[in-house]
């Protein structure tokens, strides 16, 4: 079978398309005939060697995957050959940028039926990040207010949708390019971060500040004033410290997304109910993946890209 892999860390040039042996599922595993994987920034971090995830080389990227179950290992129950599934694969293992991938059965859930199977690869890790950040780490509840900084990105649009559906008032920052999409996702107020600081546009404090963007540390610290006493600052930018304000009881939490089969099943149900939109901005082939990594390093990748096997 064909796969994209890298045998050493480095720039996009270390990625190559190779012929490798089709994997065999072990106990508790299934083999998936891949419909698509999805590109995530962490794929570039692992390839470049600056994201501390213990991978073995050579490594196949693409930890978000959709496809059809092709073979079962010993001890697998509750899933059958022919089932269409999606999953957030263990990041330290080979991913879905290949024609086939082996996955632990506990990483998989039935795929949504209302969207193309390949597009469903865009859902798992990013939607789980938004869900975890808002509700597991941020403890948002109906009637509260959230400020989402960087809402125009992939995680941000899921966060806006999920918060709004939960009865939360959503204030979001976005650029003019993404403002309409953020409003369409459900934001009650959109602040143009290219012209206006959030503190200058807010009409009151929020319960949760969710940061999804690389900010100047001084600006990030200043934005904590937007949070009420006893509130929380949640950030997905693990490469920089998340500020708090202990004197006012404002806590800080940094998101490290975790696989969660129950949560992912709930997200799939929201998709099929029409309550959560999966956005795919581009579809590419395995052969185009190295070029996509180069584009991402140059900052030219916007939205969610799925990689067709």
Order of helices and strands: EEEHEEEEHEHEHEHEHEEHEHE
Helix content: 10-25%
| Beginning-to-end CA distance, first to last residue | 10 Å
Separate helix tally: 8
Structural category is alpha/beta
How would you sum up the global shape? globular
Question: Care to count the β-strands?
Answer: 15
Mean pLDDT level: 96
- The share of residues in extended strands comes to 25-35%
Stretches where pLDDT falls below 50 for ≥5 residues? Answer: none
Q: State Rg.
A: 20 Å
> How would you characterize the largest beta sheet?
7 strands, mixed
Topology:
Layout: E1 2-6, E2 15-19, E3 29-38, H1 41-48, E4 64-72, E5 84-88, E6 100-104, E7 108-110, H2 124-137, E8 145-149, H3 154-165, E9 169-174, H4 179-185, E10 189-192, H5 198-201, E11 206-211, H6 217-223, E12 227-235, E13 251-254, H7 261-272, E14 282-285, H8 289-297, E15 305-308
Parallel strand pairs: 8-9, 8-11, 9-10, 11-12, 12-13, 14-15
Antiparallel strand pairs: 1-2, 3-4, 3-6, 3-15, 4-5, 5-7
